[in-house]
Design a protein that fits this description.
Chain lengths: 300, 317
């Protein structure tokens, strides 16, 4: 803080100059060491994933193992149905991200642009649902899906998303729509657009950055979701990557959980692979992402 | 829009032209508005409101939905009050929440403050601090299970380098919840982006004026930065509290609620009651207890916000 607040425009005495330089050095030292600490778990995971069996759990560890075993990244695929888990997860994630963005952008448009009876009350109720822990509605929803014989199908995971199930998304998109001048709506109306035309042709393209942000958030949410699949799926053929990874990790592991396990490198390799799709989307859309967060901000 | 009448008709349909004459613009907006929000409305009415009522009703029954369906009045709630495991889960979850929420926010603000100092390679640093938060869930839980291994885990090996004998982390009753908090701090970068955006929105004139009045960095932080960030903190605080009370994946994957129920959280207990022991009535009562707790804390934050949340442009009474 010292550095910025001091401002760089004024002329400094040599003493101030020295203090400024020391301040910068300290700042970079802090930022860099923090970054090293934050990335260590990733580096450790990477290093462990290529460690040969006989070096698992060595103390002190070697960041670069004496022999590098890359095959950990593919051997588990041949005796564990990871391919199936990935196919399932990609399907659910794809449908859900598109479904929730489509429905939430429509709903948010309604709240932001159209004046209708009861709008404000319904919108406030919508915000209030953000405070509702999902567990309160979980059991009746489970009951509903089991009555519909939909346990072990993807319907319980997909249907709510198609119905704009995220109040947070609706709220964020509405904030975004509100920043766009309503004169655009009027101009479009004169050109003969109805509400849907205004939504699709004028506003939807303008809120693309916000859609980009929510696409990453929803992608990573759906990809990582554990609770939903855990409740609704119990046939391993329907499992998602999150469930499959857990199954693989528990597997034949002796001594329970995180105790010394020669399969640790394989487990770490599979864990890394499960993170890759989320990381790729993040890097691809990163600019959108930061921009979108900055624009939407979050104002209470 | 350069459309021929034929195209317009194809898009809008011929019937609507007659309809439009019959309905006033206000009526049309009402219909359009409800059509636009209809997906969410269906969700809110059926999957949320109706489900809440059903959940409340179920909490007055002793039921597994197959063989038993017996009305028991308030017995589930009475049982809850005398259930030592419920208390244990309540205490554990509260411990986690009160540790995680303030530390998570403090770390997010601290990182944002660091990165807001006109550092070079901002994009790189931002990504490094942000990454841990997007890979949440099972993968992170599995990773940390090994990182926190008392013997060969990264954390204790690192501590050993500093000459510190690390604790047994998730295998110790005293350290299991702090382990989860440590994991949470690793992911604190997620909220850092919000604060970074908030910081960038603070007008620099405020700092310059304060400088001229002779204010140092600490008073500047205390009297300008924090008040200007308070709306962001307010929102973040509420969302974090709600999220923290629902902690589940870590304890399910890493410890299974152990050792000796030291990480039995409310949602894990609910999960066991409902989906492993099939006491759906009892689990519903538990869900309502959780809801009540979340409500109380959210309202407390809302109530207190007059005192500490500052909106620029608003005149203080």
């Amino acid at each position: 803080m010292t550095a910025v607040v001091a401002g760089s425009r004024r002329k400094r005495t040599p003493a101030q100059q020295a203090r400024h330089i020391i301040g910068r050095i300290l700042l970079y030292a802090l930022v860099a060491s923090g970054a090293v600490i934050f990335s260590m778990p990733f580096l450790w995971m990477l290093s462990t994933s290529v460690t040969p069996k006989e070096w698992v759990g060595a103390v002190p560890m070697r960041w670069i193992p004496p022999r590098i075993v890359i095959s950990n990244y593919w051997t588990p695929w041949s005796n564990f149905p990871f391919l199936l888990f990935y196919r399932n997860t990609i399907f659910i994630t794809f449908v859900n991200v598109i479904g929730v963005l489509l429905s939430a952008s429509l709903v948010a448009f309604g709240f932001a642009r159209i004046r209708f009876v009861g709008r404000d009350v319904i919108f406030l109720t919508t915000l209030a649902t953000m405070m509702l822990p999902g567990q309160v509605t979980l059991i009746p929803q489970y009951l509903l899906w089991s009555r519909l014989h939909a346990i072990n199908t993807y319907w319980p995971l997909i249907a709510p998303q198609l119905l704009a199930s995220s109040a947070y998304d609706i709220f964020l998109l509405r904030q975004f729509y509100m920043t766009i001048n309503t004169e655009l709506d009027d101009a479009a109306r004169i050109d003969g657009c109805g509400w849907f035309g205004i939504y699709r042709r004028i506003l939807l393209p303008l809120i693309a950055p916000a859609i980009g942000v929510l696409a990453i958030i929803n992608f990573s949410y759906n990809w990582n979701d554990f609770f939903g699949p855990l409740i609704y799926l119990n046939d391993p053929n329907k499992f998602t990557v999150a469930l499959g990874l857990r199954l693989f990790q528990v597997g034949r592991s002796a001594g329970g959980g995180g105790m010394l396990d020669v399969r640790m490198p394989q487990i770490m390799a599979m864990t890394i692979e499960s993170m890759i799709p989320v990381l790729i989307t993040f890097f691809l859309a990163q600019r959108y992402f930061v921009q979108g967060i900055v624009i939407t901000g979050v104002k209470g | 829009m350069a459309e021929t009448p034929a195209q317009v008709e194809r898009i809008a349909g011929p019937i609507t032209t007659r309809r439009r004459l019959a309905l006033s613009p206000r009526a049309r907006d009402n219909i359009a508005g409800y059509l636009f929000i209809s997906p969410w409305l269906i969700n809110m009415v059926f999957l949320i409101s109706l489900a809440m009522l059903t959940s409340l009703a179920i909490s007055f029954y002793d039921t597994d939905f197959i063989t038993t369906f017996e009305p028991v009045g308030l017995r589930n709630y009475a049982q809850l009050i005398h259930d030592p495991l419920f208390y244990k889960s309540l205490v554990n979850t509260a411990y986690y929440t009160f540790g995680m929420v303030p530390l998570g926010i403090a770390f997010a603000i601290a990182i944002a403050l660091l990165l807001n100092q006109k550092v070079a390679w901002l994009g790189v640093w931002r990504t490094i601090y942000y990454l841990p938060s997007i890979v949440s869930g099972v993968a992170v839980s599995i990773l940390w299970m090994y990182l926190l291994n008392p013997r060969f885990g990264l954390i204790n090996q690192g501590l050993a380098l500093l000459g510190i004998q690390g604790p047994k982390w998730i295998y110790s009753e005293d350290w299991a919840i702090p382990s989860f908090i440590l994991m949470g701090i690793w992911a604190a970068g997620g909220n850092m982006l919000l604060y970074l955006a908030g910081l960038q929105g603070i007008p620099t004139e405020l700092y310059e004026a304060a400088r001229i009045d002779g204010a140092g960095s600490w008073p500047c932080f205390w009297h300008i930065t924090l008040p200007m960030l308070s709306p962001t903190i307010f929102f973040n605080l509420i969302m974090s509290i709600i999220g923290a009370w629902q902690v589940f994946t870590q304890s399910y994957v890493m410890t299974g609620g152990g050792p000796n129920n030291a990480t039995l959280t409310m949602v894990l207990y609910l999960f066991r009651k409902a989906f492993q022991q099939f006491h759906f009535g009892y689990a519903s009562a538990l869900a309502w207890a959780l809801f009540a707790i979340v409500m109380v804390f959210t309202l407390l934050v809302f109530r207190s916000s007059d005192v500490w949340v500052f909106y620029a442009g608003e005149v203080r009474k």
